[in-house]
Amino acid sequence: MSSQISSNRAFFNQLKKYYTWYTGGFIVFLIALAILEQLGLPKVWIGYVFLFATIGLYAGIGIMSRTADVAEYYVAGRRVPALFNGMATGADWMSAASFIGMAGGLYLQGFDGLAFIMGWTGGYCLVAFLLAPYLRKFGQFTIPDFLGARYGGHTVRFIGVIGAIMCSFVYVVAQIYGVGLITSRMTGVEFTVGVFLGLAGILVCSFLGGMRAVTWTQVAQYIILIIAYMIPVVWLAVKHTGVPLPQFVYGAVLAKVTEREKVLTVDAKEKEVREIFKQRATDAKARVDALPKSWEEGKAAAEKRVADLRTANAPMTEQKAAEKSLADFPKTADDAKKAWTGQIATNNARSAPPMPHGEPFYTSKTGEAGDKERNTKRLNFLALTLCLMVGTAALPHILMRYYTTPSVKQARQSVFWSLFFIFLLYFTAPSLAVLVKFDIYTLIVGKSFADLPAWVAAWQKVDPRLLSITDINKDGIVQLAEIAIGQDIVVLATPEIAGLPYVISGLVAAGGLAAALSTADGLLLTIANALSHDLYYKMIDPNASTHKRITVSKVLLLVVAILAATVSAQAPADILFLVSAAFSLGAAAFFVPLVAGVFWKRATKWGAVTSMIGGITVTWYYMITTQPWLRSVFNVTSPVADNIWFGITPISAGIFGLPVALVLMIVVSLLTPAPDKETQELVEHVRYPNLKGDTVSTVGT
Amino acid sequence: MQLTEKHKEYWRRNLNLTLVLTIIWFVVTFVMGYYARELATINFFGWPLSFYMGAQGSLIIYIIIIWVYAKKMGQLDEEYGVHEGDD
Predict the structure, then answer these.
(1) From CA A660, how far away is CA A657, in angstroms rounded?
(2) What distance in Å separates the CA atoms of residue A378 and residue A362, rounded to the nearest whole number?
(3) Of B28, B46, B55, which is closest to A427 when you measure between CB atoms?
(4) Distance (Å, whole) CA A183 – CA A195
(5) Domain-by-domain residue ranges, chain A?
(6) Are B83 and A690 a contacting pair at CB < 8 A?
(7) Domain tally for chain B?
(8) Which residue in A303, A339, A617, B32 is a FRET match for A563, CA 20 to 30 A apart?
């Protein structure tokens, strides 16, 4: 035992040394690139250097950590110290959505967006008290492993495999999509090429070394992503407050933003622009009401204009513009209905006064309707927070990480470190949102269009959905209502808003890439392990040799990765919704059977089976009947309003699946015979870190 | 195997600790979330209190309760002789 301890300690010190050197090396690399930029290195080269240097680095770690040992491949040899497991979990956890989307979401939603901040951190409390230490004591390889051992039989294990794949696959598709997007933006290569470049980076790592390689790469990726997130925010904080600690000083900035919102709400010019949008919405509504006549007239008018300009031999640019508007005109009356209904919504949204950033559950409605809307918003805020938290404590790729620590004690400490490293980014994101909002409200609004900073035009050109500023009322001055912003721009453009050199923009892209790659790594491994370990080894061929198991696992990893990349390359609709859906599904499927498995000896196999099936079914049912994209996929025609319960949005569907899962677990367990003595002893075994005279052994081989 | 009284007491104390910390977690998240509009009128070092809690305060409390849990359980393991040897 004592030689074990001293070797653990030596290992920890060695890791500390490696990663300190690594961090130092990375900073030197940044400084060198910054100098090269000053000397005239072109921007596109900086993008390439970042892309290939970081992916090459991850691949290098992957190659160094290659292994054919089962325990190393599945759980990194169970010797990852608490602190490093915490960093790896942080990278595993924070996806492209956290890194790039979160601050922008907070910019757009204000207080109500904080449900994501609380939900995606508070869930670790549940992981810490209810799951991590017990799973570590159980000590096998996957989450279905625990379900299978605790409830007995292949049925529970099989449902667990299905559930794990269902949550993880939609999630990994979104990550690979993010990888493709960032890579193509960084270097200008095609999106599909970007997807497969990123995929190569993921595969070299997890393919050769499984969990072991993924762990050490994730630690390296965490370091890059946190540096990339912090530098621009700190700079922006210095620009606006003079203090380099944005998290501690942005309260004052928030107060200024609130003041500014009040001014902009009553400003005459702002009102003028909002009126124009309101008029546009009314016009669109009139056209929708007059369908199909309005469509025929509109089409005829557009055709006539093209013909008139041609006969009058008008300037080429005018002719081209008329042709384009004819080509863009809806092809059928049905298309017109869809497009114009969309215009009503967009224009109505843009005619609204600025939302007060700090006000909870804001609505512009007043009186009784306002109270009702606020209550619904509050209910949705609480429901979403709960779904995200419980989902956190049920996602297999996160729980799996707690199998890798050397002891139960370190598993507990490791949850603390996980949340600590996640916290660093999550408590910074709200300050970034407020600082960028302050910048735009004070430095962009009120400026003349001729003097706008260069980054505005640059990003408008990249993608008008990210940022578009148009002079609606033709006064030559920017009004807030004239700015349309997409959520990703907030993080992507911060380096330029803060006036930093291009190398920092490259760094931010590399950080986003690290976040997406690290999450994709963990998810792919979860899916491949569920298939190779639970389905193949435990259920199909229990006599397979270790060599064969690892080979099967690697082949499956390859297949799943290519499948996921193929799906991502199609750029499926509503990818963001599917990510959040993974949390609701995970919460409804896994949380109850996992927690009951430890805390309630009476929980039985059939309790678990019905609980998982019931939870998943109700959650899916609610999403399919209420979410626009799923409704169209499954051809649901009944009105949404009839299917909505308590005004809950489909993203929080887990709020209905969870109680169903709980009730089924309790009722069915009590109706079926109590678990046998062996199972009861297994429960006692996981409850105590070290039980003298314990004959149960679960450590996996 | 038969659990001793001491083992049972360890588990009871673990459950008590878990319950207390879960209640704190619940109050910080859901009770404060429910009353967010009322708490927004209180100024907390420049932030409306509910905004501060959502953006930072609750996160800090989450970290602290996880730390307390790890620490306390480490002590309980020693006290009841169920620890895994020091590491």
Answers:
(1) 5
(2) 10
(3) B55
(4) 8
(5) 1-41, 266-365
(6) yes
(7) 1
(8) A617
Please, which pLDDT band fits residue A1 given cuts at 50, 70 and 90? very low
Distance (Å, rounded) from C-alpha A461 to C-alpha A257?
A: 28
Helices A502-529, A43-64: inter-axial angle, 10-degree rounding = 30
Distance from the Cα of B52 to chain A's closest Cα (Å) equals 8
For residue B25, how many other CB atoms are within 10 A of its CB?
22
Give the pTM: 0.90
**Facing B59 at nearest CB: one of A378, A426, A431:** A426
Phi/psi at A42 (nearest 5 deg)?
-65, 150
Rounded Cα distance, A30 and A461, in Å:
27
Tell me if B55 is assigned to some domain. yes
Note whether residue B84 is domain-resident: no
Question: CA A71 to CA A75: how far, in whole Å?
Answer: 6
The predicted-structure confidence for A370-385, as pLDDT tens digits, reads as follows 889 899 999 999 999 9
Separation in Å, CA of B53 to nearest CA in chain A? 9
To test the contact with chain A by mutation, choose from B35, B41, B56 the residue with the greatest count of A C-beta atoms within 10 A, namely: B56
Contact (Cβ atoms closer than 8 angstroms) between residue A121 and residue B29: no
Q: What is the pLDDT of residues A544-588, one digit of tens each?
A: 888 888 888 888 888 888 888 888 877 665 666 777 888 999 999
Residues of B in contact with A687 (CB under 8 A): 11, 14
Other C-beta atoms within 10 Å of A63: how many? Answer: 13
Is residue B9 in a domain? yes
Q: CB within 8 A of A396, min separation 6: which ones?
A: A142, A143, A164, A167, A168, A526, A530, A586, A590
How does DSSP classify residue A342?
A: H
Residue-number span of the structural domain to which B60 is assigned: 5-79
In a domain, B22, yes or no: yes
Confidence of residue A423 (pLDDT cuts 50, 70, 90): very high
Amino acid at A456: V
Choose, out of B62, B64, B79, the residue to mutate when testing the contact with A (most A CBs < 10 Å).
B62
Residue whose tokens read 């946190």:
A226
Instruction: Classify residue A469 by its DSSP letter.
Output: E
Interatomic CA distance for residues A456 and A478, integer angstroms: 12
